[in-house]
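Annual report, structural modelling task.

Input specification for the zinc ion complex:
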Amino acid sequence: MLLLEPDSQLVTELAPSPNHYDGYYERKSPWVVLHTMETPENSTVARNIATGWFSRTEAQASAHYVVGDTEIFQCVNEGDYAWAAMPTGNAHGIHIEMAGRASQSRNEWFDDYSRALLELVAALTADICARHGIPVRILTDAQLAAGEKGITSHAAISRVFRESDHTDPGYGFPYDYFIERVQAHRNGTANIANGAPPAPAPQQSAPAQSAGPTPLPDGVWYNARGWFTADRRLEVSADTEVDSPSMGYYSAGSGFNYDGYVANNGYVWLSYVSWYGPRRYIAVGPNDGRTDTTWGTGF
Ligand SMILES: [Zn+2]
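The model returned the following structure:
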């Protein structure tokens, strides 16, 4: 049916598109699918595509959402099928078209326009994930092929299902940064205006240290590489202060590659350099010299 009201409170304006199929059942494996519109980056392009193209029958194309640097347009009900990515992608995806091009480099995804756009898309994606029970993760090709829930791209759908040759949003798209921002919005720690997480993480009390095993000295860096799997929710921090803002989190069962560790403020922190630059720290247990008190495995 034609779009009458927004599915998300983040929608700026409705731009109903006739180019869709009505959905008759709840999707069993919803994906959030990222696209680029192959347009310039400017303040009117999202409006032009949503209200001036997808709204017209002759376009024979649509998406659920069209996003620029300041506005989110909804064109198709989430429960209906947009015409965005051939049969398989259309059947299972909630599709988001982003202003920009698949040829953008990683650096170009971090210009002012794209950062503002990514923040809106991350907020929208977090909202969709919350309402549809979609985990905040980028699907591997195997997970996508198996119909698991998650976030994916037109490129991945093309690769896995071979129904088109589209490669958007392109090789330069910063998935690591994007997923961290989605997680921040999902946690409620993101400030949509500036992309900075303002809320401090809850203060944690320092653990009691046992007399037997020896804690590590504070502030000494140790090189070590591995994959750590969390057994509970672990906050990601930009430093080793316990009251710093959370940059996101790993939920139980999820994990990350680390390249070293350091003890500070009563905890042992695993660390890695995020794909787009800044170093991150994750407290993985009390600094008590013991291995059985670690909040996960792989360290
Ligand atoms: Zn696409």
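The chain has a mean pLDDT of 87.
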